[in-house]
Amino acid sequence: MIYLLVVMPLVLAQKQCLLGRDSGEFCDKPGGQRFFFDLRTKKCQPFYYKGCGGNQNRFDTSDNCMAICSNTKGSTATAIEAVCKSGAYAAGATTLPEPLSCEECPKGYECEDNLCCPTKEYLCNLPYDAGRFGDQGSHRPRYFYAKSYHNCMLFTYYGRDGNANNFETYNECKAMCMS
Asked: Coiled-coil annotation: which residues (predicted)?
């Protein structure tokens, strides 16, 4: 019993350290500089937080971030690229060792075949995000829905982070956002 009381909070804390950077959304709350744990570099990196939303990999100071995340184990190279029926990546699929469970679905996602999949309304309104290079340094052509053009556009995805507005084919993008 004591083992569970000591180990469970550590496991939960380290899981938040596996999440990718999420700047959140602008709202009536003040934003500002925060820190996230970058699994690739094993360091806490600064980013601008918009004030609302985001995920739990967000800390007020670099010291607080390192205190919680410095012993985090994991590799971005082993991330499972779980893909939803729509062709979009499931939540956590490109940033975690495994995708998030249905109990952990963030706002804008719903459970589909045991994966947290983005809703059409959420996904098709996300801005373009090319992500950044993962551990392997690979990149590949993908498609995103450009709301201002009411069309799907080609872009280069760098293999890590980014967002759910990211499809392998034009037809997958079209089926999700233009139907």
From this structure: none
